[in-house]
Design a protein that fits this description.
Blueprint lengths: L1 H14 L6 E3 L4 E3 L2 H15 L4 E2 L3 E9 L2 E13 L5 E10 L4 H17 L16 H11 L5 H9 L6 H17 L4 H7 L2
Antiparallel strand pairs: 1-2, 3-5, 4-5, 5-6
Helix pairs in contact: 1-2, 2-3, 4-6, 5-6
């Protein structure tokens, strides 16, 4: 494991900072693309001679009626494992009225996994604004990892009652990931919330 950690640290140095390379035309914000993150990580891992196994992702699908018709909301938890048992996890959610919700969620999960695993700086702080919803992940995950039972997860989720749908969705994805870490079935979590 020590050799793997040393190579991952080396890879992080090689990756460094990645500039935001894409713009969301609809919501008018810049972001770091999955392509840019994957390219930098791939190059660095090849350079240090390290590769990984990607586990089958966990995903949850929910069909929701919106003002614009039915949409599919997908939440994904992805995991890669390096030699020595070093694992990185990523969470993502995607919503779409056609067939792209799963792809959007998987793309977000993979991009965020690599960004967090290698502490990739992008030049902005997602906690500055909650309009994009990413603050849910950053502000509350620290307290979430301290939760060790179903009751704690239920209390965590109750804190999002009345919040915007995107924040609730991200909180649910985080709680499901923590439930999985604790060997709690997400269906038990869903039932406990009723």
């Amino acid at each position: 494991m020590k050799e793997t950690l040393e190579k991952l640290a080396e890879a992080a140095k090689i990756i460094g900072r990645i500039e935001k390379d894409k713009k969301n035309q609809h919501f008018k914000y810049d972001y770091m693309s999955e392509e840019a993150v994957k390219a930098a990580v791939h190059k660095a891992l090849i350079e240090v001679g390290l590769w990984y196994h990607m586990h089958e992702p966990y995903f949850e699908i929910e069909n929701r009626e919106t003002a614009k018709g039915w949409k599919q909301l997908v939440r994904v938890r992805t995991c890669v494992e390096f030699p020595g048992g070093v694992k990185f996890y990523g969470l993502g959610a995607g919503e779409d009225g056609n067939d792209k919700a799963l792809m959007k969620a998987q793309t977000a999960a993979i991009r965020e996994m690599w960004k967090n695993a290698f502490c990739i700086a992008s030049g902005s702080d997602p906690e500055e604004s909650t309009t994009e919803g990413s603050a849910t992940t950053n502000k509350n995950y620290g307290s979430l990892v301290e939760i060790n039972d179903l009751a704690g997860l239920v209390e965590f989720l109750k804190g999002y009652k009345g919040k915007p749908a995107k924040e609730k969705s991200q909180a649910w994805a985080l709680a499901c990931a923590r439930a999985s870490d604790l060997s709690i079935d997400h269906l038990d979590l869903k039932e406990a919330l009723k």
